[in-house]
Each structure stands twice: as structure tokens, then as C-alpha cells.
Amino acid sequence: MDNFLSRPDAPNYDVEMVGDENNPAPIADPRVQPRPIEGSQRPMDPLQRPTDPRLPRPIEGLQRPLEDLQRPLEELQMPMESPRPLEGLENNTEPNDPRLRGSHQLQPPMEGFQRPLEVRRSVKFSVDFVTSLLQPLTIYGEESEPMETNRPIATVAPMPTALPLGAPLVVGDSDLEGPSLPLPQPQPAPTKKEAVIKSLYQIEPDENLNNVSMSDPYKGTGYLRLDIPNFSEFCRLEQDKTQRISKSVWVRGLPWKILAIPRIVDNRNDRTLRHTKALGFFLQCNGGDIGEGATWNCVASASLHVLSKRPGVEPHVRRITHTFYPKENDWGYSSFMHCEQLANPMNGFIENDTITLAVHVYAEAPHGVAWDSRKHTGFVGLKNQGATCYMNSILQTFFFTNKLRKALYQLECSPEEDPELSVALSLQRVFYDLSHSDKPVGTKKLTKSFGWDSLDSFLQHDVQELCRVLLDNLEKKMKGTNVEDMIPTLFKGKTSSYCKCIQVDYESSREEIFYDIQLSIRSKDPSKHNTSFTIMEAIQDYVEVETMDGENKYDAGEFGMQPALSNVKVNDRFEFTDVLDLNEFVRDNDEGIDFTYYLHAVLVHSGDFHGGHYVVYINTDVKGKMAHWCKFDDDVVSRASFRDAVVANYGGEDPEVLGRIFTNAYMLVYIRKDQLDDVLCEVTDDDIPPELIERFEKDKTDEENLKKEKQDAHLYQNVFFITDELVKQHRGYDLFDVKILERPDVHRRLEKSTTLEKLFNYVRSDILNGAKRMDEDIRFRLWKFAEHSVRDERQHIMSLPRFRVTDEIFLNEENYQKDIWSCLGERAIIYVERPQMRIDGTFGLMSYNCNTDLMIFVKYYDPSAKEIRVIGTCCVHFQASLSECQSDFLHLLYVDDPDKPLPDPSKLRFYEEVSPEKVKTIESPSLPFSNDLMLNELQDGAILIFENTDLTSNTDNARVYTDSIYNTIEVDILQNDDISTFPCAMVDNTPVNTTGTVNLQWRIDRLVEYVGEKLQWDPNRLMLWRLAAYSEKPTHAVNESQLRHGSFRVKELLSLTGDAIHDPRKQKRYKIYYNKIPISVQELDKRKQMRVTMLDDKFNCVEATIFPDKLGTVRNILEETKPLFRFSENGTGKLRLVLCGATNSNRRVMAIFGEDEPITAVMKASPQAFQLRVEETPADQMVKGIHDHFLAVAHFEKTPSERMFGVPFFLRVSEGESFLDVRERLRQRLDLTEKEIEKYKFAIVTGTRVNRYLDLDQDERVKISDLSHLRFGGISEMRGAQHIVWLGLDHFNRSKGSEKSRVEKAIVIHN
């Protein structure tokens, strides 16, 4: 390490100092000199010369040369090493893995701080510190009350709540009083030295964790010990053949062990230390003992000790912090100490050839194991939906604010209220479950009631922001109820603020209401920035008078800007106490109220500015004699000590404290001492309305039943029964509407093991309402429905899928006991055929032979009712013709009116319904069904439609009717707001969106007329858009040829062709997108659509689309733009066209086009990285003199190659003109103050390279010869653009935000 730190290129790292003068470091620390041997006059080497009789013999087998043993001990020390998992065994991790973190690892310094090597403490900054006070508080200063007018971080009044790591909370009310209770005195926090000594050397078990018995397997701390006898023999063994493991000690329900193994050290930097033996020391968590395949993780910190055997010698200690999980279940040091060091009795670690290892482990409650929070703590946690730990923390805090919980139960919610739309009802449910559930409580219904979607559950927010938003929401809902004032009563306080001018007699004061106080966690005094800062000091700073002077003067009205008094906040490490006495900050306390507060909750954030994790520590027994702290970490609740809840969360990066690095308190909740009984009043089931309890219990039962159904779902299958009655009631395509499959009279859940015999009996008893038992005359038949498509051989496309009857379900001896799962499959749709009146006058099922007969469904078109309906089924021989079955069809039509005379069968016309989009006419009914010209498929389930031609016509028949209902669609007519693919389109700020009914076979010109009529807009100046096939997004505008082409119809516009054809059964509404255009579609082919930017004299840019003639010149472009341009009042009224760069590397003006330049040349010279800009010619640039030059001016920040910004422009300069004059004209042109332009640096730039920065103090002057010639009046190509010389303005880009900051979505509760 010394060699590394002495290198000139070594970084300035912080190194942990393990010892000091009073507490010497362990002997293995290379920064501490070894002790002299007792009785000597000077420090001596711990390993003496061979002649020294005190020299121990070297251990056999270590193969160390004698010269090595003569070297000082400090040269034999192990280099500082990061802890690592055990190498060579399972779950190995490379030594250089970035996850390996230990307290001895070199840590980079805090940015902005240069610290010497001996500094022990590094400071962690957080943005803010949050404090909550339950019960009111009015804060005043010592002599006057400060009012802030320019506060960059903190504020007396409530601040905006979107700060990622801080914003405060203070809650209270002075109207509530209660008896003073005998409460425990505040527990003093340990001093820095005490904390260090305890973490380093106190290895005995911590008995202060709520007096938990150390035999409890779920305790939070544990002490492990391992003796290694015959240590010399242990060191001689090979590293892969020996290991020592201690007995298991159970901590947090997991078994922990010490693992020791001899390791070979290969020190490449020192040849004499190569291939020496060292002790590998690891802490192992055998989570596999809790069950195979368990996915668990547990965060633990531990101190690893080699205990000393000689008085006065401190143990050798190193520490680790690691997340243990199955793949990394051991962690420690592969080279903890050299075996020679341990084996040398002079070092004091060995006695009787035995060394002792010890580990003091602190573990947090694990995740992924059967952790019973209710059993261990009496409370349960909340499930994390993804990133809702911040919400879970504040919800637990509100839950333990008993008075708030009690008031929430009194909010009335109607029985019909949807819990997914009611915040109050959902929050009541969460609180009820936290009281009564034994398992972690879900919050999905609560977030749904907020109006959040699943994405919101994965966005972490500021916990204080959610606190304020949720309290505001509840306060509004409590208006007009008997708990209307509950939120203000609990959470409102007042501040009296003022601002008093120093030099004039002017004073302004105001009284403000606050719900929270934001405290700085860093002292205003720079000399105290590296010292601890306490909450009382923060409050003192909060009310301290501050002088507002310089740029921070206060606006005193008629007195102008005046120096005044206010306050400013900054941040640093912060210490707080469990008792807070604020009486000194309260004025006019005539009632003698004791403003002493007791700490109730500590909301903790672990992580950095960009994210992390929230937990909350809550004292669940503030009123008791002993504090009872619990840690609420989402779904896991565990017991915690006072040190865990308070001391360990002071913040900062102190590697000497065993526990949570990068963790600090974020929000504190205090309760006023005399209001504890009132705020923490008892809440029982008697305080919950009975109807709420009944509702919650019913919901719980329903959820359990639903969960059980899901668990048993693999034992059941869905069976749907379609009866004759349902088929005959259907109107439309197919035989039924798929929507009826969810009806309870259709849908059944049957066990997969149900036999066909039971299925038939079930149909008879449940579906047919107790039909007679089966006998010789079967009273019903069962058919299997299947969904499939038909291929059109001519067009090579598949039809829309349709449901058809395919096979009869037979019940015979062969399949009598077969189960329905093997016979019907997963989704069984069954058609139940009932008996019907036969043509011979008998009642029964039609005779059917599966080998020769076809079962056909018959539909009839009724022209008077304009409908097609199913009239029955018919079984026909496959060799029979349709003509032979006409009498049967007519019988089905008039079965209910047998006396009515039948029409002439020769007047019947037949169709086959193949699929919704294909209904074909049967031209030759005399052909047998087996003929290819008859049915599309020769199988059961065909649908035939017939009509009486005496009642129909060419315009009113079944074919016309089916085509009409297929092609008629409902549409939404919408304006296309995305016109990037067609810039000529216009976008109205108040578009007209409407609905309509159109036909898929309409030509586009007819559709345009229809849409124009709906919008009351000239159809000739209306642009329609073609949609993508599946995304339904507008892609291409309809051109003139498509308008004239008769084959381009509505279905092509909507891309309803090929596989994406229209399905009328879905009753889908389609979208038609339009845009209004300034010229007719017919003129578009003659015009050139161009997108130009219009720049006014205030550097405001507006884009516009123009339509100059394709064969025109720049003059036509300017004429088209002129009606749209906003001229300045005293301008020249003359427009010009400028070519500008459009990227961050070329955002400068390139050329000025002459008015006679052809449009074709302009478009050629303006590729994608450039843009065309129309601007008013400045008066001083109307005429260019022979000694004048139009100099391009552009903005950039530090480097013009990639950080250009702003609006570039031309500036006229003259030969010999002073750049000071140029600077002044630039200041006026940019409307800058003298102070603002002082921050600008002026540079001569060629392309993207800065040639030099101008020194204006040297009276530099313009030399046009030094500037490249910029063409004025025309341009042929842009190859020379990179050589243009321009004037760069180097300054900070105020228009951009931080490139590294994330845009946080504000918290909004929509309901």
C-alpha cells in the first residue's frame, strides 16, 4: 500500500484509520509501527535474528528462507485486501469483482474535497433532511422572525415536493392537550470514540436488542467462535484439502458459520513473499439449510476477529458488509493474515498451537424465506409492487398515527363504491388488513384508486411528496364530515416570518401555515462542515437572521432593491435525538404548553440521488417505559435496537461504524409529549363501522375462493353448452355470438376426470332441466364445436375463423368411462341438439349415420324483417342433391304453422355461408352435395341460407344483405396530429373530431365528400391518411392518383386486405385520419411542399409549410412566406432565405440565397442536417459595401464540435472595426446587460475548431482577409461549409437542464 500511495499518479483516496494514540491499531495494520519488545531500549523487529533465544522456530512445511524470517514484521504484513467470497469452492467470485466491498478497501474521496491521509471520517451529503412533528409548533427567532426571499434549498414555508432526496414534514396542532406522562429520558447517542471502539473490539453478543434471548434463532445479532488446534499442521495442509467450520449460530432465522482455510499467497510485487501461506477467513450463511431451491437474500455486516492470547495485544479485526444469497453465501478475506504472523508467539495470537477466530454478525431480516413478521414483532408489512417502498414507509407511519387511522375509519363509503376508484375505501382496507392479516398486505387496489397504472408502480418518488399529496387528498375527502378538521388538527403549524431592511425604515412580515419543516443538515459555518451537526443546531440555523445583500437584495417596493435579513439552507451529516425540546423557539406561550416531542418514526433512505430504497423505523410503544423499535422493510418487519433506528442513521460515510453505509435518516416523525395519549389512542374493531368489517371480510373470503380456484385450475376445464334455443335466437354470422360463452348458463367448470357418462347425465339434469333418463329413444345429441378457417385456393388466403359443428360425441361401451379432457380437449364447446318435429309428423331427433350423412344448419332470409335466422337442422345423405331437400327446408320454416301453404320449391335460392366475408351463391342445386361445385367443404356443420325469390329482388336478397352488414363499419373521424410524414398538412388547435358510418367498398372520392360534409370543409382541400395494417397509425397521405383510381377504396385506406381483413363480429370502430390543407389536392403535384423556419427580430422561430411552384425560384419561396411572416414595426420589410445548420455540431448560418436561385438548387443544398430559414433583412445588411463582411455568429458551450445551441445569425462587420464595437452591437442585438455579456467569451472558429479566443483588452480589430469568403447571392454546393470562419460566443447554455438529471414524474392522485 505504501508503494502505491507514494506513486505520483496515485489517486487521492480516503483510507480508514483503524487505530489512534489511545487505541492502537492491530499489529497487522501496515500504518502502525510494531511494539518494542519489553525491556529493550529501542524498537526491535518482532521477528528477531536467528541467534536470539526468543526467536520461535519456523513452522515446518512453510518453505520460507531464513532471510525472510529476519525481516521486520511490518514488511511481512498483508496488503489491504477487499473481502471476497471463498475461492476454489462453489459460488466463487473473481477477486477484482466490483461488488467486493469492505471497510479496508480504498474508497474514492467525496467529490470536491481534498483530504489528507490521516482523516478518519468521510462525509455523505444528502439534499435535505426531513423532520415531522405531531402536534403544533410556531417557530420564531431570537429577536426577530426571518422571512426567506431567495432560498435555494430549504424554506420556512412548505417547499415544492419534488426534491429527490429531501423535503421536510412538520405536523401539529396546539388545541389538543393531555396529561403529562412519566416517560423515559432520552437515550444519549454514543460518542464517536465509543462507536469506533464498540464496532472494533466489542465482540460479545449485543444484549440490547430489546432484551432478546440469544437462544432466539430470529435474533438480530450473533456471536460465532472457532478454535483451530494444531495450527502448525493446519498451515502445512494444502488449501483444497482442509478447512475448519464452526458450529451454526442462528441469526434472523438463518444458520451462520465461520469458515477457515489455509491459502497460498502469490505476491508478485515481492519475491520473498511469494508462495507463502495465509489464513482464509470467511463468514458463511448456509441458507440452503432452510430448504432446497429457496431464493433468499440477507444483508449482513460483521467484524471478523483473530483473538489475542496475550494481555495488552488487541485482536486483529477486519469488517465486511455483504448481501448473502445462494450464489454468494460466503464472504470474507482469502488472505486475512500470514500464517507466520499467527504462528509467532511474540505476536500474541497463538497459545498451545491454537488460535481462536470470532465473528460478531449483525443481520437484517431476510427476504425470500418464511419470515413470520406477525410472530416476531406483532405487525405485518406491505408488499412492494416494484418501486413502492417509499409509499409503504409513509403508509406504515400513518397506520401507527392512531388518531389518523381512527378518523379514516369514520369516512363513509357507499356499498356500491368501487374500491379501485375510492382512495378512502382502499386506504381503509389497507389499514384493516394491517391490523388483522398474518401475511404482508397488498397495495395494488390502493394504487389503482390513485389512478396509477402498472408503470407508476415501478417509478420511485419522493416519500415526502407522496405524504403531502395523500394528506391533501384525504383532507378534501374529509370536508363536510365529522372528521373535517382532523388533518389540520394533527399536521398544521405556523411560522411568523419577516424581512426588515437595514438602511431604510421598511419591514414586511407574514404568518404562514406549514405542514412540514425543512431543515439543513449542514452548518452555515464553514469551519463546522467536517463536524457533526445536530437537529437543535439545525433549528437554530433555521430561525437565524441572515443578511440579504449584493445580488440577493430584497425588493422593498418604492425603496428599490435593499439589503435585508433572511435565511439560506445547506446540507451535511446530521445527528438527532429521541427527545426534542422546542420550548425555546415558541413565543407567546401563555398556556404554558410543554413543547417537548418524542421521536416516533424514522424514515430512512439508502442509496443516492438517482434512487435507492426506503424503510421506516417506528417506535411502536412510545408511551411505554422501554422503547420498542421495529423496522418496516416492505413485506418484512423485524425488531430493531435504538442504535439501528437512530444512531446508525445519522448519515455520512463512516466506515468505522458497523452497519449501513450510504444510509441516512430522511424524515423524522415526532409526537408532542402531552399529546401522546390522544395521538396514539387505542384503535379497536369497535372503532370500525360494522358494514366496513363485513365488506372487508367478504372481500377476503372472495379473494381466498378465487385464489383456491386458481390453485385448483389444473384440475378443471371449461365446458360451454350451446343449445338449440341459443342458436335460434342468434342473428348474424355463424351460429352464436362468442360473447355468450361467458354467460353463467353457458359456461361450466367440470373436473377433467369427469367421464362421458357423467357428462351426458349432467346435460340431462342441469342443461336440459331433468329430461327423462336415456332409453331406446335418445332425447338429445351432443356435438363438438371447433374453430377453424377455410383456405381459398384461388386467392391463396385463409378465411376468417368460424365455429362449426365437426363431430358427434358418441356414448358407447368403448368410451363410456373416458374422461372429457382426453375426449374434448382444453376448451370444449358443445352443441346440444334437441328433438324436433319431423316432416312425417313425428317428434324426435333426425336419423343420422356418421359414415354417410351430413348434419346441416339451415338459415332463412326474411326480407320483411331484414334478417337471417336459424330455423333448424337437417341430416342429408352426402349423395343427395339440394333439390331433394327443399321440402325439408320448407318444413322447418313453417313447422309452427303447418296449415300454411308451402311456396313453390323451384322458387327457392340457396347460399352457403362459408365465413363472414364469403357468402357464395349455389348455382346448381340439382348437383349432389359431394360435387365440388356444391359445398366448400364436405363435412358436418355446413350452414345453408335459402330465400323465396318471389319475395326478394336484385337489390334485396340474402347476398346483398350479408354484403351490406359486412361492409358497413362505424368510424371515428380524427385529425392527424403527427404530420411529420406530410408537412403541408395543417393542424388546428381546436380540431373537429366526429363519428360516422361508412362502407368498405366506397371509393376514396366519395369518402372525402362524406368527411368534408361532416367537417363542413372543402373536400378538395382535405387530406386523408392511409393506415398501417396492425398499428392503425397514419403512414402515407392519399395522393391525387389514388383519389381518381376506382380500385382504391375504403378497405385499402384502412389496410383491411390480405390477412388483416375486416371481421364484423368484433364490432370494431375504425379510425379515419384527416388534415386540412391550404391548397387543393389536385394542385399538390404542381407545387413543392417545403418546411421553413421564420425568424423574427426577437429571435423567435416559427415553422411553416409553404407550396411554391416546383419550377420557381427563391423569390417564389419568399412570396409564399410573406403572408405568414410577422414583420417588425420599423423593419425593412425585405425577406431573405438563409441556410442554417440544424445539429449541435453545425448550428450556425451557412449561406444567403439569392432571389433568382432555382428551388431545385436550394433543395439540393439543404440536406437533412440543415434547415431553411426566412428572416427579415436587417437595415445595415440591405447593402454590402466593399469593406463590409457578413460574419456568421453562433453560440456554443466549451466546445463547438458537439455543444452548439441557440439561434445563429449574421452580423455586418467592417474592415478595421474594433471588436469592442462589435461586442457592443452584439450586446444590443441579443438584448443583454453589461453584466451578462461579461460572461461571454469571443472566439474565432473555423468549422468546429476554435482558432483562438479574442483578447478585447488588446483592442483587436476586424481583418476581413482573415475571414473566409462567404458567398452572398447564391450557392451551388455545401462542400466548403466546414471551412467557414465564424464568430463563436462561448457561454453557459441556460436553456438546457442537467444532462445527468432525471425528469421525475410528479405524484398525482387522480381520484
Please write out the topology.
Elements: H1 2-6, H2 66-69, E1 129-134, E2 138-139, H3 192-201, E3 221-228, H4 231-236, E4 244-245, E5 249-251, E6 254-265, E7 276-285, E8 298-306, E9 316-324, E10 330-338, H5 339-343, E11 355-363, H6 373-377, H7 389-399, H8 402-409, H9 423-436, H10 444-449, H11 463-477, H12 486-491, E12 493-500, E13 507-514, E14 517-519, H13 535-542, E15 547-548, E16 554-555, E17 561-562, E18 564-565, E19 579-581, E20 596-608, E21 611-619, E22 629-633, E23 636-640, H14 642-645, E24 663-672, H15 676-679, H16 690-711, E25 716-723, H17 724-729, E26 747-751, H18 756-767, E27 781-788, E28 791-792, E29 797-798, E30 802-808, H19 820-824, E31 827-833, E32 836-837, E33 843-844, E34 853-862, E35 867-877, H20 886-893, E36 908-915, E37 918-921, E38 943-948, H21 958-967, E39 968-975, E40 994-999, H22 1004-1015, E41 1022-1027, E42 1034-1037, H23 1040-1044, H24 1050-1053, E43 1069-1076, E44 1090-1095, E45 1101-1106, H25 1114-1121, E46 1135-1141, E47 1149-1153, H26 1159-1164, E48 1170-1176, E49 1188-1196, E50 1204-1214, H27 1219-1230, H28 1234-1237, E51 1241-1246, E52 1249-1253, ...
Parallel strand pairs: 1-24, 2-12, 25-31, 34-38, 39-43, 44-48, 49-53
Antiparallel strand pairs: 1-14, 3-11, 4-6, 5-6, 6-7, 7-10, 8-9, 8-11, 12-13, 15-18, 16-17, 19-20, 20-21, 20-24, 21-22, 22-23, 25-26, 27-30, 27-31, 28-29, 32-33, 34-35, 36-37, 36-38, 39-40, 41-42, 41-43, 44-45, 46-47, 46-48, 49-50, 51-52, 51-53
Helix pairs in contact: 7-11
Enzyme class: hydrolase
GO molecular function, one term: cysteine-type deubiquitinase activity
Keywords: Hydrolase, Protease, Thiol protease, Ubl conjugation pathway
